[in-house]
Amino acid sequence: MKIGADDAGNTPRWKFSTAQPFDEQRRSFLGALLALGSLCVSALLAVPLIRFALFPLLRLTTELKASPVGSLSEFSSLNEPVERTIQIEQVDGWRKAVSEKAVYITKNGQGQLRVLSSICPHLGCTVPWVSAKQEFICPCHGAVYAPDGSRISGPCLRGMDTLETVEQNGQLLVRFQYFRQLVANKEVIG
Amino acid sequence: MQPADGKKEDAAPEVTTGFRGWLNRRTGLDSVLRSALDEPIPGGARLAYIFGSGLLFIFLSQIITGVFLALYYVPSADHAHTTVAYITKSVTAGSFLRGLHSYGASAMIVVLLLHLSQTYLYGAYKGRRELLWFSGCVLFALVLGMAFTGYLLPWDQKAYFATAVGTNAASEIPLIGESVRSMMRGGTDMGTLTISRFFVAHVFLIPACIFALVASHLFLFRSVGAAGPVTEDPFHPTQKAELFYPRQILMDLSLTALLIIGLGCLAFFVPVQLGPPANPADAQFIPRPEWYYLPIFQWLKYWHGAASVIGVLVIPTILALGVIALPFLDRSVERRPWKRPIATGAYAFVMLALVGLGLRSKYLDNHDPEVAQQLAKQNAEEADYMAKPFEPELSAASLAAANVALADPLAAKGKAIFESHYCTACHGDGGVGTAAGPALIGVGAKFSTDQITELLRHPTAKMKAGGMPTPELSPDEMKALVAYVASLK
User: Fold this and answer.
1) Helix (H, G, I), strand (E, B) or coil at A84
2) pLDDT tens by residue, A38-91
3) Across chain A, how many H-helices and E-strands are there?
4) I want to staple B21 with a disulfide (CB 3.0 to 4.6 A). Which of A145, B16, B130, B267 is the partner?
5) A140–B426 C-beta distance less than 8 A
6) Whether the Cβ atoms of residue B154 and residue B69 lie closer than 8 Å to each other
7) B119: which residues sit within 8 A by CB, 6+ positions away?
8) Cβ neighbours of residue A23 under 8 Å, at least 6 residues apart?
9) Which of A136-150, B51-65, B263-277 is the least confident region?
10) Which residue in the set A18, A21, A124 is minimally distant from B7, CB to CB?
11) Does the beta carbon of B236 lie under 8 angstroms from any beta carbon of chain A?
């Protein structure tokens, strides 16, 4: 396939005879083979790139870790709701936010432990437990809740929000979540 | 770009029908492809010519891996190290991609040296190819610039201290040295502005220049043509030419395949390391540059005081100018290296000097027990750091909250009062504010502690209308609460 230049020196570089027709077919076949090979190699190399780019979507980063509230024995003889501050850790890519949230540990009608968010489902104020009245009373707009968190009166549309709990090795753990305000049904946000 | 001499009938007929025909009519793709593949190589295809396209491939790989790394990287002294640790330790294939990028930089230097050596020893800069040589020299400098600026970006100990030394070297230049160093660092010291500058140079400025110069390098290459073997005339090629496709392309692709396999295996089996975050206060740390900068590093050690101008500026400048002006200094048409004893001798001398300097640096490190011990300690610290799982960075808000509690016991007591008196009900956790009450963050800047105390004891009419009660607190408790509120930032 050596091709002779027409003459030496400054003649235009395009002056050379090209391959024979027979070679042309082999050239095309080889070209197709190379193109296919390159495509396969590129596809293979794209795999780590795609996995790298999709990492945040494929990993469950949104799943909240359960935060410890206290030992179960502490809450076994509960007469009225008690307040505990829990630390919640929210991971956002390469950073995390640690914040403190107040929750109430109380019992429902059947005597089972429930953990309530202290955020008022009306407009998000922190609801204090008023021991003298044995009620939760929101200082902002006067929503009133029973010791188990159910709604008694006021502008709120639902009772206080129950949080998901886990019991592990005698410890009570809770998954803190935020819920939409001003709606009758509990809806998780964020 | 068909051959202009009417020999078109020998070439394969251009496709004029179907999809390819349409694409061809619209884009002229066939003739573009043809002119790309039918580059004539005087004297035929050779393995010696494969390095240029190898460099193109590595450059492409660096761009792709670099763009992907930028998905997670943040160029700031606060976050750079965390984000690189995140890439290396957490993100799927992150260590692999970072390895490809990091080893790719070394491969770039190696292949660049091979490309340069081939061009030099084959006398391929001679004759009609002066401008090609110029653009190559500039590209060489730009690649070294990429390696220098990229090295700092992980912001670990070795990156920080190596760059501190590297930028210090610039200050040896007489008169403007200090200004050059400050310009590079974005101040007199290394800091977050240094990262910004190096990042911009590494990601925008130098790559833009490289794109432009690669384009002109290729354009010039195609304009003046391939140099051919050492027996070829540097002005008027006479030897039988072979087209670039297929044999030369196959040889080039075999280097590419070798590079893919080599870099892939390195990145996979020898994961690239990341040391502990940069600690500018560490006075013990002994910085050592990446292998390709070791000769220069060792060279700079020999020049001190007034003489340093010669070592840092005069000799390198003469060398660089000599290399750039080579096509004009060396006007003979002789290309065979064994017939060019001065050129070949100079090459051997410079290469041996570089290798010698690099080895000398390694030798000195190994034979100074103190240095060897410290370097071993640094390697151990790096391995320790790599073995730890990734620890996410605490966000600024969490840190502020934590700091208040730690720094000032009075404010910490105030925080407890703030929470137990249900101030958080309306003012939110940490005084961030809610729908029912205003944020308290920054009140410390607006009011004195006395003014805040007065407002708490005697709320204004507006505050009362908003539902603000008067807290019943002892003077001590009030003091603590005010300290906390004033500290909210």
Assistant:
1) strand
2) 999 999 999 999 999 999 888 755 556 788 888 888 888 888 899 888 888 878
3) 1, 12
4) B16
5) yes
6) no
7) B125, B133, B136, B227
8) A1
9) A136-150
10) A18
11) yes
- Nearest Cα to Cα of residue B198 among B212, B183, B208, B209: B183
Chain B, window 25-44: residues with a beta carbon less than 8 angstroms from a chain A beta carbon:
38, 40, 42, 44
Paired residues of B281 in beta bridges: none
Q: Which of A5, A59, A128 shows the shortest C-beta gap to B237?
A: A5
Q: ∠B388-B389-B390 over CA atoms, to 5°?
A: 120
Q: Is B424 on the interface with A (CB under 8 A)?
A: yes
**Which chain A residue lies closest to B5 (C-alpha atoms)?**
A15
Residue B240 touches partner A, C-beta closer than 8 Å: yes
Q: Kindly identify which residue of chain A lies nearest to residue B81, measuring between CA atoms.
A: A94
CA-nearest residue to B419 within chain A is A102
Check residue B172 and give its pLDDT. 83
Minimum distance, in Å, between the CA of residue A181 and any CA atom of chain B: 11
Residue found by looking up tokens 């050059």 in the block: B180
Residue B280: DSSP 8-state:
T
Nearest to B336 by CA among B458, B227, B411: B227
- Which among B4, B38, B235 has the least Cβ separation from residue A18? B38
Interacting residues of B358 by C-beta distance below 8 A, sequence separation 6+:
B291, B294, B295, B298
Separation of alpha carbons A34 and B157, rounded Å:
45
pLDDT higher at B263 or B331: B263
Q: Mutation test of the interface with chain A: which of B31, B224, B236, choosing the one with the most A Cβ atoms within 10 A?
A: B236
pLDDT band at B133 (very low <50, low <70, confident <90, very high): very high
The secondary structure element, H or E, covering residue B243 is strand B241-243
Q: Please name the residues between 442 and 481 in chain B that touch chain A, using a CB distance below 8 Å.
A: 467, 469
- Whether A17 sits inside 8 A of B91 (CB atoms) is no
ipTM: 0.82
Beta strands in chain A (DSSP E): 67-71, 82-92, 95-107, 113-117, 129-130, 135-137, 144-145, 151-153, 162-168, 171-175, 178-179, 188-189
Give contacts of A22 with chain B, Cβ < 8 Å: none
A172-181, B148-157, B252-261, B409-418: which range is least confident on average?
Answer: B409-418
Q: In a 3-state reduction of DSSP, which class is residue B398?
A: helix
Mean pLDDT throughout B462-466?
84
How many helices and strands (H and E) does chain B possess?
A: 24, 3
CB A60 within 8 A of CB A165: no
